[in-house]
Amino acid sequence: MVQLTINNIKVNAEDGMTILDAAKSVGIHIPTLCHLKDLAPTGACRICVVEVQGQRNLTPSCAFPVYDGMVVETNSPRVRRARKTIVELLIENHPQDCLICVRNKNCELQNLSEKYSVREHRYVGESKNHAIDISSASMERDPAKCILCGRCVRVCHEVQKVGAIDFTNRGFSTIVTTPYNKGINVSDCILCGQCILVCPTAALREKGALKEVVNAINDRTKFTIVQVAPAVRATLGEEYNMPLGTDVTGQMVTGLKRLGFKKVFDTNFGADLTIMEEATELIHRIQNGGSLPMFTSCCPGWIKYAEQNRPEILEHLSSCKSPHEMEGAILKTYYAKKMGINPKDIFVVSIMPCTVKKYESNRNELSEDNMADVDAVLTTRELVRFFKLAGIEFGDLPEGYFDNPLGESTGAAAIFGTSGGVMEAALRTTYFKISGKELENLDLEAVRGKEGVKEATVSIDGLDINVAVVNGIGNVKKVLDDVQNGTSKYHFVEVMTCPGGCINGGGQPIHQMTEKIQKRMKALYQIDSRMKLRRSHENESVKILYKEFLGESNSHKAHEILHTEYFDKKSVVDKS
Q1: In 1-123, which residue ranges form alpha helices assigned H by DSSP?
Q2: Which positions of the chain have pLDDT values less than 70?
Q3: Is 158 a catalytic residue?
Q4: Can 357 be counted among the known catalytic residues?
Q5: Catalytic residue among 206, 281, 408, 494
Q6: Is residue 532 among the annotated active site residues?
Q7: Are 467 and 492 in contact (CB under 8 A)?
Q8: What is the pTM of this model?
Q9: Choice among 108, 277, 327, 360 that is catalytic
Q10: What sign for the dihedral angle of Cα 260, 261, 263, 269?
Q11: Structural domain boundaries of the chain?
């Protein structure tokens, strides 16, 4: 331990700790732009500079370690002037369109401008002028709004390990872009949106579908149906200043009905259905010598990664569609027939925590007769904008209930939104299908948490099933290498592209606090623990669906409607 003084406050800090972290430990806030927790500091933006006694120049607090006897001023006149100048220079090279910007009131540059009382334009000069990249079905890239903080580059390279974007050129011409400055759609980007979550401005954002959805609701020839992913209910409340992890399912359902949707269903039904199909597929592979390990297929970012980078393992992917695609397919077949509605008149909207779901819903493999399973995808953030547009005061909404039959679900489906949840849900049903008995301890702690790769072994009637959970696409390489080399010990592997799972998806409320992820996870596990039914095979509506329409899990009809196929895209330009 070392002792230093920050703003006349005696501080005890660990040797090697940065000034930034030491100040934070005693409640002193130092602004940052380029800094990302848990990644090595770069000191690039210089907004975090402080005055250290004995140092001639101002010091970047994020990159400078403390030492015994150090005296620091974090808010001296000299420091404030330096920070204000940095902010002013960034603003002058930034589009002046805050009122119409998607990040208005949630922009770090805007917040710093307010904090340092920037009230005039003191610097005038040339501004960047770049075209907006709208080539992707999921994301937009606006280089003119980029402040070159480098967060997106570091997340893409160091966390996700995809490397789809990077700095190019020098000086005023510096830009963050894709290789050869081509569109996102022809890059290695897997559209996970983790770059959006760390972007301080609107240089990266999701591609909006709100106008399309509003038009469908107002079209009297359309029967508009909405479904909601499990992770959304644990994060939506954050946008309304509710405590982290608040379950807002009831209010969310009421709000969606007031928006004008004809029916409000729960994607958790599709999650239970996914487990029925996936568990059966896993058992079939184990008992009949199929390709093992089998990988989950509910995360479209992971599927895109595998198709683009590791096509040799495609045979190991489960052929199951993702839950919201399954639900969409059932809505346009079983439900349409049951209700006497022309499938072409049904417009299905999915509220997702994810940006890559927008890309997924456009895949040709997930449509039949030019009719997509899901017609539009809105992120959690877009749903908030929709509520505001409709004048809905979310905090005042009474609790409502999902419509049936595609609104019924179990606790197993609720935990789909967190890393390890799909695995846990699948094992509950796999255990029953193999042994005929119920798994007594439903909480599989070994696959929960934030570790990069989590392992467990579950014994079912003498059969040891080895499983792994990959938390974040950046941790998948070793697992895939073992599969390719024939040294993998696993039978079943879950992969979630986003660290933490869907609750930290690219379409979720933007934050810079990692502790939020834990509280969101906890919310979903609490929903599961409160449910009367906690195993997917206990869902009565799913049982009726099989009895009346599908026959049995993995039947020919189930494969036609609920399963899909994948393609080697490593050497093929993806035009979607």
Answers
A1: 19-25, 77-92, 108-115
A2: 512-514, 572-576
A3: no
A4: yes
A5: 281
A6: no
A7: yes
A8: 0.94
A9: 360
A10: negative
A11: 2-75, 102-108+126-205, 210-562
